[in-house]
Amino acid sequence: MKRSSTAETRSTIERMYAAAQAGDLAAVSEVMHEQVVVDEPPFLPYGGTYTGLKEFAGVYAEASAVIDLAALQVESLTVEDDHAFAVVKVPLVARAARITLVEHWTVAEGKITSGQIFWFDRLNWE
Questions:
Q1: Nearest alpha-carbon partner for 92 in 48, 56, 124
Q2: pLDDT digits (tens, 9 = 90+) for 73-83
Q3: Parent domain of 86
Q4: Is this model's pTM higher than 0.85 or not?
Q5: 94: CATH
Q6: CA pair distance 32, 36, nearest whole angstrom
Q7: SS (H, E, C) the chain
Q8: pLDDT confidence tier of residue 124, bands split at 50, 70 and 90
Q9: Most CB atoms closer than 10 Å: which of 5, 9, 11, 86?
Q10: Using an 8 Å Cβ cutoff, are 91 and 68 in contact?
């Protein structure tokens, strides 16, 4: 699979965030590779590794119940070749808190092939 250019990676990631903010899972899925691998922190209720579009759709629904994707704000986006790093702030659905995430995405041929989500704020889920 051919690595994406910086411009293609930026465009892909910007489309993904815009679709997530709009609550459009179909549009988010369009920029995901069919075998995308997403790693969520193990301390989350839905933490783990998810492979493929079906598993991604499942974790997207679980994450949407915890974080308010419509209010997601991308504070910064740094892109180099096929790698993108975003600092994201997003409110929680059931708590009066706004959390900070750092996300690392890789893109090949205009499709997101992997994502690692890092939470700066570790909350007590009990």
A1: 124
A2: 999 999 999 99
A3: 6-119
A4: yes
A5: 3.10.450.50
A6: 6
A7: CCECCHHHHHHHHHHHHHHHHCCCHHHHHHCEEEEEEEEECCCCCCCEEEEHHHHHHHHHHHHHCCECHHHCEEEEEEEECCEEEEEEEEEECCCCCEEEEEEEEEEECCEEEEEEEEECCCCCCC
A8: low
A9: 9
A10: yes
